[in-house]
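Lay summary

Proteins are chains of building blocks that fold into shapes. Our project writes down both the chain and a compact code for its shape. Here are two examples, one after the other.
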Amino acid sequence: MIKKSLTGKTILVTRTREQSGDFAAQLKKMGAEVVEFPTIEIAPPTRWKELDEAVDRLKSYDWIVFTSANGVNFFWQRLKERGKPLHLPPSLKVCAIGPATADRLKRKGVRVPYIPEEFIAESILDGFKRQRIEGKTILLARAKKARDVLPKGLKKMGAAVDVVEVYRTVRPKGGSKRMKNLLTEGKIDVITFTSSSTVNHFADLLRKEDLKNLVKGIAIACIGPVTARTVKEWGLKVRIQPKQYTIPALTRAIAEYFSPPKPIS
């Protein structure tokens, strides 16, 4: 049983304050104490020009790809601000990178015909290979800072791709002293990262410190391989990573990590 396997454990959650609630609630159900310390904030683009132009010619696209629920939120926010219809053209096919993004779209009344098997850019590309996208026009709505794997891969398949910034991830001001104290007090058992941005901003926060020593004895948990790769680039070791790249799966993986081993029959 892993139901209360996190009793006595303290887990640091680094995702945005707006998105940490559900994750924290799931961890608390399993007995954990949760410290919410956002290392990122979500902000609108510095300029809307590219998105506005894409919205004005939305009917000319064959596909639109959303890579996060944040992208969905800001896209619809901009539609509302500009007095545009709060729905997508029926001819526009929609791809969502994962279930959370798809759920946010469904709440907007959008049908999502394509969700990749794995919730990373590489898996989106694998699926699009079967979609016959040569000659198609694709709108990629995403964060300002993101990997180029997806647009480059789609272009190689013969698609025309417009990449538009719909939001930015920024590091909250201050907090380095508090973070250092949390880590040096020895009360944190797990640090969770749910995106490369959360990792990079965590490391930036402690740039003047010896990261390896600060997190010594603390298990690092990552939502998926892209985030884990970023952790490794900072010279740190990932101990927990679920097979499915979702918050519920990450929660279960953390619980299983601390669960007593099953007796050999």
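And here is the second example, written the same way.
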Amino acid sequence: MPARAPKEIAQVAAATGAKKTRRTWDKVLVSGFLAGAYIAFGGLVAIVVSSGLDPETWGTLPTLFTGATFTLGLVLVLVAGSDLATGNMALVPLGAMRGKIDVGDVVKNLTLVLLGNLVGAMFVAFFLAVQTGVIGDADATGTGGLTYERLASIAEGKALEETAWQTFLRAVGCNWLVCLAVWMSLAATTVSGKILAIFFPIMAFVAMGFDHVIANMFFLPAAIFAGVDIGWDDAALNWLLAGAGNLIGAVVFVSTSYWYLFLKDQPEDEEERTEEPVEPAERG
């Protein structure tokens, strides 16, 4: 089967977003937990791979390595199947714009998915990043010390050095790219095609230092658990600003734009009316 054309992507995205709201709350929470954990896995491997690279020698290449390895997170989300709030911020509102669901369905879905994402990301941060010793502490030597320094640099940059306006704008840019990755993955009909569609937008947003609220739900708690000098109030403020920016990036620049281009005043396509379950690789 050939790749879907842009109009077909929009139709499938609207149908997928609507179907996401028709599952029971417990399945949404479990799906959200898995996605939060998957993004955390991406964040953890990105820290390990990019730690110990002296900027004086490597320049900005560590950010490229970080971005390239972080793509693991969204690959797991979309190919294995789970619900990521930042992807749902584009798909679920599009279902509402298409008249398939109402605003209440959108709010309920995003709330449950965000909660599941937070628990999943923090689970990996505490048990699999810090308690395992993969992330060391301030007194650690060897690889543990290197991963601690890399995590501390990332977390302090996001929680303490960015202004509120910078965090918000970086989050807008981040989720514009993340949702384009999800969007383009719907064009592909093979696993390899989906992975290729995911790789470049995700690598780009990480390399540019943009803010992804779910990734920050891993980086900041992991740093706090490891003893980095940032507070939960710093983390909460970052999540609020990043979440708001991510929502704007998804709804304004992806959902609304493509609804206007391809779905506004257009009758429902047969593919949109089907009630078959969402394919795992189409979940975002």
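What can we say about the second shape? Residues 275-283 have pLDDT under 50 and may be disordered.
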